[in-house]
Every structure is written in C-alpha cells, then in structure tokens.
C-alpha cells in the first residue's frame, strides 16, 4: 500500500523530489502547498516554468542564458571588451555580477573537466573560448573557476590552449577557500578575489 492517500499526490511529490536539494519531506510540503493555491496561481506557476524551459536561449557568444541570441552583458557597449572572465556555470556569472566589481565580459564553460564523471575538454565550451581569444581583441583572461581538483585541471588545460596567444592569464585571488564553489562564496570575498586577481 502506498504511503500517500492519493496517487496524484505521490506523482507531485516525486516531481518536486527530483529537484536538487529537495528531500521527500520538503517535496510533500511543497506539493500540499500547491494544493492550497488557486488553480489560476498553479497554472501561472507551471506555465512560467514551461515557458522558461522552452524559450530561454544560450548566448551565442558567451553561453550565458538569455532571452535573446546575444545576452545583455555581451551586447552592453559599456563593458570592457578586452577582458573575459571564464566561469563554470551561469550561477557563477550571477555571483560575480552581484559583487559589482567586474566590468568585463564572461565565458561560461558549461561545466569543468572531470575524468571521474566522464567529462572531457570536448564536452564543455573551450573551443569557442579559444576562438574568441584568437580574434585578437582580448587582452586578459581571468580564470574564475572553483579551487577543486577538477577546477585546477580545467584551468591548466585552458592555459595550455591559450599559450599561443598574446593574452595575460590571471586567476582570482586566494580569498576563495580550497575546494569551495564560487556560487556559495560571499559577495565581499568574491569581489576582493576578482579585484586582487593574480597572474598565472
């Protein structure tokens, strides 16, 4: 016999439970919360998620998420177009932007090299980064990757790929603890790490 009084409730719990960081108890609480909402409120909620999934784009320049083919950061003429900050994911872009300390462009790799997880250089956006640097406009590439083993491996691989080009390679300063993910770092520490970046 199911632990839920309704098969439909069980399906809703399973759906919420599939989200990262949502346990079964929290999933049940969310499902029951939705049941207390009006049908119109629930429809707006589900429609917004469906629309987001179907219509959101990835910037064809930096791979950040965007409503348009080119994201607001890449299309902003006030940004420093001679500097690219290389990050693992979209959350890292948001974390750095929240510091208000960086005025250049970004390049979202969409992951990091992780042999244990079967992720190699061809599985992330390294080639398009090399193409951007090869264009000649970029003077500095900031490696803002997590200080994990996989982050260090990715940083080393990209550094080797960019060796033929006359760009300055820097990395964020050591205010970020070893093994710490960028998106969970407080804004002050992250901001100082960007400002006080060091040469690789």
Task: Describe the secondary structure blueprint for this structure.
Elements: H1 7-17, H2 24-36, H3 39-55, E1 57-58, E2 65-66, E3 80-87, H4 90-99, E4 104-108, H5 127-134, E5 140-143, H6 149-162, E6 168-171, H7 187-195, E7 198-199
Parallel strand pairs: 3-4, 3-5, 5-6
Antiparallel strand pairs: 1-2, 6-7
Question: Could you characterize the architecture of this molecule?
Answer:
- This protein is of the alpha/beta class.
- It has two domains: 7-55, RecR Domain 1 (Helicase, Ruva Protein, domain 3, Orthogonal Bundle), CATH 1.10.8; 77-199, 3-Layer(aba) Sandwich (Dna Topoisomerase Vi A Subunit, Chain: A, domain 2), CATH 3.40.1360.
- The chain is 41% helix and 14% strand.
- It has helices spanning 7-17, 24-36, 39-55, 90-99, 127-134, 149-162, 187-195, and strands spanning 57-58, 65-66, 80-87, 104-108, 140-143, 168-171, 198-199.
- The strands form two sheets. A five-stranded mixed β-sheet has the order 4-3-5-6-7. A two-stranded antiparallel ribbon has the order 1-2.
- The N and C termini lie far apart (60 Å).
